[in-house]
Batch of 2 targets.
Target 1
Amino acid sequence: MLRNTRTAYKKPNKLKINNLLNYIQMKLVTQILRVFLGLTFIASAVLKLFPIEAFDARIIETAPFLGWTFSMIMARLIIAFELTIGIIIIAGLWLRRVVYPLTIAMLLFFTCIVVYALIRFGNQPNCGCFGELLPFSNVESLIKNIVLIGIIVFLHYRAKERSLKYWWIGVIVLGVSIFTIFITNKIPLYLDEIELDEPFPAHYLNCENYHFNETNLEQKHLALFLTTTCPRCKELVRNIETLNRIHPLQNVYYYFCEESHVTLTELFGDSDLSFPYQIIPKDTFFEYLPAPYIPFIGLVDSGKYTRIWTGANFSFDREKQVLKKEGIIK
């Protein structure tokens, strides 16, 4: 008797097919969320660079005890760390054991800062978490952090346990990020103030038509000479406005060189300046300065400069005590 060597046909197991499809779908969702999370941190880091001075100001405003110089260092370290985290998440390295727990801890820390800012300043229109180009209010940032933490918890549950082999790759990525951020966004090195051989008369005291009515130039005051085309001038004004929110200032005056193609609105947006300002014609602007440096800061008493600085040697950390002594800080 001959045997039937043909193999009997078996119908595919429907349950196994469904399990396979579910596995593929979950794998795809996990990969999409992981890439989205990594790109979010990279975007957060890159957007903070435009301009980085705004992020510096937000750190010093939130934590004035850090001081200006250390705040600038912290700003660049945060950006480099976010950039590194984003790159490593996309690469899929050390996710379960290191990266996801570290990222959750970082987001919880940022969430505490947002809650503190919400209590202290209210719902500000931009918390600075995505720079100036993509504003998030404090409440929106709080919701965003909660959503990201939820995504990370899900991804952590789905991630596989892997060894910490090639850990040095992460150290290299972090080192390169820090080096790149600090080289492309240098922290100003402040020199001593400029010494005057003799008091220089402040001729601008005769100017009229201030954009505020409350002006008393006979008092000791701080005069800032700026142009609308100077990036450091914009940075200086932003820092002065930030300092004013931390330590209220008085007797501060802005003097802008008149430019035909750039207006104050284009330079500073719709935000109002806190102090009186005067726009001086370009052909006479530098006649009021004892030194041709922009931005120029002068402390004036009895109609004459007693101290002068440039934007490159005016350190808020160092000069804060001087401003307090001279009565500029209330």
Target 2
Amino acid sequence: MVFCQSFSIKRNFGEPVNNMLERHVEHNTTRANGYDRAPADNHRVWNSVCPSSQKDAGLQVSWARHEDEVKEAQKLRFDIFSSEMGARLNTPVPGLDIDLFDDFCEHLLVRDTQTQQVVGTYRVLTPAQAKRIGSTYSDMEFDLTRLRSLRSRMVELGRACVHPHHRTGGVVMALWGALATFMVRNDLDTMLGCASVPMMHNGVMTGAAAASIWHQLRQTHLAPIEYQVMPRLPLPVDELGVEGEGCEAEPPALIRGYLRLGAKILGAPAWDPDFNTADLPMIMRLSDLPARYRKHFLGGA
């Protein structure tokens, strides 16, 4: 679940961050910036389906409580985005993926209970914090004007990634379970993010696969017109569709997972030049969660 399998896997902006590294996260173990992070789940242990070498390992889910834990998430992000994906990260600290939004976000962590290593992460930008910083990350890539009526109860998910040794589904399920609990406890109902599709396809640098996925999903999972958004740097999907005629690329596994949860595509993809990915804007509302997933994640709530 590396590239093309996460919400908002993105580049850094490069703006100066005056006190990011010195900041002490201003929240305790149960509340952050006015939001309830569900103390009952703060160190919840999940069983996971792991490779045979780690089949006895469990997963521990928690919210980052201090700067050192945030740095653990940033290190995992750097290792995957830069070292594995080859993204160009303009980071103020070598070995850490840092941008100006980190300082305003809650960071959800999944640890391997045997090693205590962070093996999965999401960051969550709440409505109050989005208002403080002035935008969401997705606003930088898309004109989100049509979503203004949703913003008061909408969180942005971003920087999702999973360690290569744990990409068997357990980490993602643990993250989703904690996010669902967070949403319900805080009376939030909408999740926004960008799903990234790599421009590299079968060893060739082309956007044909991303164009193919867009043309497929617009037929089956496009949001109503009142919620559709426009990319600020559009991927030329029509030209790429002609170029890649006959290319029927399958959506990445996590995108398929989001769609099964009721997520919708908000519009055509933007091009992220630093990650060289096509970013599909996506939205997921709790009211659209199918009954079986509602029962699994929310206990039928």
